Amino acid sequence: MKKNSGSGRGIGARLGRAFLLQATFISVAAVVGVFVAGVLLERLLIREALRDEAAHFWAQHSAQPDFPLPHTRNLTGYIDDVPDALRPLGPGYHPWRRDSVDYLVYVSERQGQRLYLTFDGSSVGRLAAYYGLAPLAIVLLVLYLSTWLGFRASRRAVSPVMALARSVRQLDPNAPDPAVFEPDRLPSGADDEVSELSAALARFAQRINEFMERERHFTRDASHELRSPLTVIQMASDLLLQDLTLGETQRREVTRIRRSARDMEELTSAFLLLARESETGLPTETVCINDVIANELERVLPLAQGRPIALQLDARCHLSLTAPEKVLSVLLGNLLRNAVAYTDAGRVRVEIHPNAVVIEDTGVGLPAARFHKMDQPFVRGSAAGSGYGVGLTIVRRLSDRFGWPVEFTSQAGVGTRVRVTFHGATATPLAG
After folding, report:
1. Which of 76, 280, 358, 404 could lock onto 351 through a cystine, CB 3.0 to 4.6 A?
2. Using CA atoms, how far apart are residues 254 and 310, in angstroms rounded to an integer?
3. Helices in 170-247 by DSSP H: which ranges?
4. Residue 420 burial (10 A CB sphere; 0-12, 13-18, 19+)
């Protein structure tokens, strides 16, 4: 089962990213807002205030010539005793720097007189900090606190769902345990919907167990029941072949009966193998794949009799694997029988590589539309081939169970190539 617990794609990670993006966006927006406010404070409010201050001074000066010039901590006015650096400035706004301090100068002219108002520019920063940054810091603090609390609350809300997801990831697909979905195993605070989901998963796991148990019993019982008549057929065929009075045609037919019974016995053994493996497991040992292939090639020789088919073995190394020998025999034997059954003329070639076995044939091949259905039960390559249409299904089940990837490539009229990769196999060079 695929796991992605550490991929950052879970609900908790997504919630964290969502809240983080939200807080970041709001923080950036707030900082930009304060910056814009500072600019507006300088460009609009302060300039408007200087203009109003100048208008107020001229109004008072016209009625009272000795009206005092503005002189505060941040604002200073000049008419007569004007610094030399300000005298060249014309009416309007001007930047001015004095004693490492930036000023905003507003020059207003009335009746031949000029009023110079200088505003300490550093005060803009203090005003922005006082009226902007300080409230911003408080707002951001409240924002981050509320975001963190919201994230904690969201995590608590989805934690039961995350716990269910972990339970599903840890399930054994061959024997799912319904007890892991019991509602009392959920984190505290699980709502009714999550409890219903957990109960549904428990029922589903129980149904899977019951289904698999029925399948194992049926496979085992049916396979055992088939063995007895198959044994009778094989024994009767052997006795008939010993009859010297049989003609060539009758002997050929009896041989066909004997071969079919043998194929059915192999199929029955495969079913028993799958059922036994599901119930108790299979003994493992170090097996030489070369020997297994040699035995299976010898067993498929009767299938190739009467047809111009060459069976070739290209062993490039000794390949050993720790696995149940019977499983390897069933898997490779089914692939070899399938290759021989669908090859009328040409060759069936087996190559043993350091980590894989490749089986190639020059048989009928398969069109793409039919090829993708070949691992489905009771689907055969062609009507001309022999078999019952379950061989590749067994191969697929065994490869999935033991982790031996099987790759099929086929082309109609050209042939089929099958590659079985054995992870963990040990290759040794051939002697000589």
Report:
1. 358
2. 25
3. 192-241
4. buried
Largest CA distance in the chain: 151
Q: What is the DSSP letter of 100?
A: T
Q: What is the pLDDT of residues 164-222, one digit of tens each?
A: 767 777 676 666 777 766 666 666 656 666 777 777 777 787 888 787 777 777 766 76
Span 22-48, pLDDT tens digits: 777 777 777 776 666 666 666 667 788
Cα torsion at 128, 130, 133, 139 (round to 10°)?
Answer: -130
**Separation between Cα atoms, residue 152 and residue 163, nearest integer Å:** 16
Domains of the chain: 11-160 (no CATH), 172-281 (1.10.287), 283-432 (3.30.565.10)
Cα-based distances in Å from 298 to 58, 252, 307, 310, 336: 119, 20, 16, 13, 11
Q: What's the one-letter identity of residue 210?
A: E
Which residues, in sequence order, are CB contacts of 232 under 8 Å at separation 6+? none
Does the pTM exceed 0.85? no
Tell me the three state secondary structure of residue 234. helix
Measured CA to CA, the distance from residue 314 to residue 143 in angstroms comes to 72
Nearest C-alpha neighbor of 294 from the set 277, 270, 271, 319: 319
Token pair in block for residue 43: 């460009």
Calculate the CA dihedral of residues 36, 37, 42, 47 and round it to 10 degrees. 120
